[in-house]
Amino acid sequence: AGVLWGPMAGFHAKQAEPPLRVTPLLSETSGPRMTYRIGMGVRAADQNWKRLLNRFIQDNQAEINAILLGYGVPLLDDSDRPITAQVVAPKPY
Q1: Among 8, 20, 41, 47, which residue carries the largest CB count within 10 Å?
Q2: Is residue 88 a part of any domain in this protein?
Q3: pLDDT tens digits, 43-88
């Protein structure tokens, strides 16, 4: 057992032989929160760029999640429930 940052833990756990299981710490009551959102920012003058990026992410969220899950990155939804490959369904074209 060990504690490691989720994206790094997930990637290396998937590479291990036999594969290791990553369990997000969701209900820890002491110490710092172990889950958080990743964000990005743009300059205040770049509102068009911000809208374009937000739209791209929204339109491609399933594919982005699938790529991250493919690398073993643990993902959580807005209610801190794990997002799994079964939940991720790329858009039909």
Answers
A1: 20
A2: no
A3: 999 999 999 999 999 999 999 999 999 998 899 888 888 888 766 5
Asked whether residue 92 is domain-assigned, the answer is no
60 located within any domain: yes
Alpha helices for the chain (secondary structure H) = 6-15, 47-59, 61-70
The total domain count for the chain is 1
50 lies in a domain?
yes
CB count within 10 Å of CB 64 equals 14
pLDDT-based confidence at residue 92 (cuts at 50, 70, 90) = low
Let me know: does 24 contact 6? Beta carbons within 8 Å: yes
Name the token pair of 92. Answer: 């039909």
Which residue is associated with the tokens 């491609």?
Answer: 60
In angstroms, the CA 75 to CA 35 distance is 10
